[in-house]
Amino acid sequence: MRAVLALLLAAVAILAGPVNVVFILHNHQPWYVDFEKNELILPWVRMHAVGNYLKVPLLINESGVPVAFTLSGSLIEQLNWYANGTYIDVRYRISEKIARGEPLTAEEKYAMLAIPGGFFDINWQNILYKHPRYAVLLGLRNDAFSKCPPGNVTCVISRFSDQDFVDLATLFNLLWIDPYIAKKYSDIWTLVNKTSYTRDDLKKVLDLHRELVGKVLSLYNELARQGKIELVPVPYSHPLMPLLADMGALEDLRLHISLSEGLFKRYLGTTPTGVWPPEQAVNDEVLRLFAEAGYLWTVTDEDVLKTTAPGFSHYSLYYADYGGRRLYVFFRDKTLSDALGFRYSSMSPQVALADFVNYLKKVPQGECNVVVVALDGENPWENYPNFGDDFLKTFFQGLAELEKNGTVKIWKPTDFVNHCKDKATPLPQRQFRYFDLKVDISIYKSIRDLPTRPVAGKIAEGSWSGGGSLAVWIGDPDENVWWMWLKKAREDVGINRTWDVLFPLLVAEASDWPFWYGNDMGSPQTFDPVAKSALRSYYTRAGLQPPQYLQTSAYPAGTPREDKIVGRGEGKIAMYGGAVIYANTTHIWIEGGPCGVVYISNPDVARSPYMFRGAAKGLGGEALDVYADMAIDTCKGLVYLSDSGRFYPVGNTAALGFIGARPGGLLYVEFRGLVYALRVPESYAAQNLLLRAVDPLGDDFGPGKYQYPKNPAFKPGVFDLTLFELYDLGDKFRFQFRVKELGGNPWGGPAGFSLQFFHVYINRGGGVRNDTLGLRVSLCKEASWDVALLIGPGWTGGNRIVYADGVYVDDAMSIKLGTNNTIIADVPKKYLGNYDNKWKITVFLTSWDGYGPDNIRNFGVMADEWTVGGADPVAVLAGVAPRVFDVLAETAEMQVKALTSYKVVRLPNGTYIGAPAVVCAYLTGSAEMCTATVTQFVTITATATVTRTFTETYTTVSTQVATTVTSTERVKEIDWPTTAALTVAALVAGLLAGILTRRK
């Protein structure tokens, strides 16, 4: 209790001096080079160069606030490629053809219309929908794709005129230029409001792109030379360094480090003192390599510190000593970093600044305490109004004023280290578990099963993601196989090679490929070709034949590309051409349609490159979009099995047991170049309904005012829970949820959906926790949980069983779609035990966001493309705005009452603190909703040396926040007596007592 009280006292103390702040904005682009086509397949280096790479440092520099910028080696190299003409990207080449009046091929026109991957890849809410002509073109595109058969290029492009393609190319290239930059070129700025364009208009835009790309590095060079910014390198290809170290590729990492430093000296005229670890991913071997390279400091995430040294403050500066070389380590603050990256886009700059300062007032005081705000420097701003231009200017000018009045002191990282290095804290030597990638991990399906090794070191192995884990880059079958592809390629080719051979290997070692594999952060569709092209070139440049598995469009573990799957079904699928494929619990067969060869792939088969199972090429040598384990030739009536890329006839009966397929499992079927997902039927002796509850229709508004994000993917009703059912299936439980509208699967979620995220909290009789896992609400004492189920689209964190002691199990549930907008999660009983009718089950529905804290979407005051709107401003400031759309409750009124039961207190120094809402709506064995009166009041009473009772009064919200709230919205503020520190202690103790009372 004393330790907690001391922490709270520090958090609410009136500021005695400025809070130290360090800003680091991370600029990185993946390699986009296709070695075989000799061009860049994606244009994002160019598109950010004509906007954020120039405008962000220029706008911040107007305020005089010193900021550090990172530049990855892959970004610097590609900027130079554009400048010297080494490579251009596909969309620039197509645009140039249009500007010159050269005819496009049918495939080029079709590629322009792709989503993603085409000329609609731009922020729709803030950019596309605001331009009438662009919006019309999108409507034409969607109509064409809805009316034409899948993959019918001629049908789609016949609906567009040449003028349509001129306009589309011009708008795409024009509107990626940031307005702050475009306004400096009057002939370009006048084009923005046109609705029809000429080829000469397009040529002007493309010429400006070339000019602006050439200015990026010189701008950073000049600002650094003037001492206005600090430049920080990122190892060459942005490799996921800990996992390469776990593989034993230390020499590769040394090369990445030295190459990036060389680029800084050559193009930026500086010798850097700090280094940014890609994805803020570190382990002890990585820190040692940085120290050996002579770097002074690096930075990683606060969650890594929590694992490294529980209880240590991430506001302190630390160091690790390697043979007398000290490497100082910053730990970034997630809250403020994510606020700038995501949350502040839904706020005005003034309100965002108030929130920023409100948080800083909670930081413990100390000359060498520091808040590190480190985030993506290029992607957030397009989600802000006016591309973030107004926000950046106003927000950083506000910070400059706060620095003048002594509220904050903003440092460049190296300056702060030099000021405080003598007061830094050593990281303690401890035993950790790191991954072991020197063995074949292709056979593993989950991160929890991966082999590890003991290490005595100074820091845990981790990153910014998933509570400090590396789960975004490893653990999923596609990710695990990718790492083994890389490992085997290094073994097959070797690293004692010329630069021409080694360069593709360095490209393949970038973190970007496993970042997308596994669908943790979206579809790998556009990045998969780059990754494979690099590995194939590594082989071919060494004079070796690339393995067969690098020739297919399937992802490493055999998952087909999303755009290849044209149909789904359970038990049967009608395929194009009239054929129907059937499956029962034991066999698979085809009826009707033209004869041909049908290929069947079981995704549960391990695809190790050391002993490749399946075939990437068909019976006739054609490239397949799946790894075929079985082929059925309906013309000859023959069934084939495959292994190591070859097929062997086995008769005329296709038994699922041949390929290890089981009831309830998923199969991929390829016929005539199209892929279908076929679910093998399940058979149960009994399906016993245990619980059933109906939730009111239309109550998907959380505490009463929440609005969906504005992106069209969020269709009305996708967060409206209407029915919950719990079944006993013998060896497992089935949790079944129905929503008003599923919303399709816009981002290719592995479980068949993308938007919903269900939280289920179960009290099995021994509930000890009443917090929730990121929802920012609490449960009442009766509903305190001992196990929770996080049921999402199947990406990392979206298939997780969590126990009250913090132990969790990933990927143990089978999550899939049912019929009529239902989502099903089957949970083996070994994880939950036997059902008891005294179980109490609380169900929430929120919005999945793989980029958000706890994988939950941001809930803010104003809705934007990706942010939920309608939250109470003071609840947002106090961190108690519920991140919930729907609660399984008997009535909407009960839900609103529960979710608005949070309390907020404003302290005299402007800090907002609060207690979360308490929800007490749960199901019991009677299958009827058990309810309780939901009340929550924070009574603050404290006694000082002279007995004194503090009363609560109501006051309007401060004027800094009032811009976003109505005059009737109120927040509790303490009537603060003029007493000493004991009064502060008494008040905080009273608040703490109120919180703890509810958490017993």
Automatic annotation (TrEMBL):
Keywords: Carbohydrate metabolism, Glycosidase, Hydrolase, Membrane, Transmembrane, Transmembrane helix. One of its GO terms (biological process) is carbohydrate metabolic process. The keyword Transmembrane applies. Residues 693-903 form the Glucodextranase-like C-terminal domain. The chain crosses the membrane at residues 976-996. It holds the Pfam family Glyco_hydro_57. It is an enzyme of class 3 (hydrolase). InterPro entries: GH57_Enzymes, Glucodextran_C, Glyco_hydro/deAcase_b/a-brl, Glyco_hydro_38_N_sf, Glyco_hydro_57_N. Residues 22-424 form the Glycoside hydrolase family 57 N-terminal domain. One of its GO terms (molecular function) is pullulanase activity. Its EC number is 3.2.1.1, 3.2.1.41. Belongs to the glycosyl hydrolase 57 family. This is Alpha-amylase / pullulanase. It comes from Pyrobaculum arsenaticum (strain DSM 13514 / JCM 11321 / PZ6).
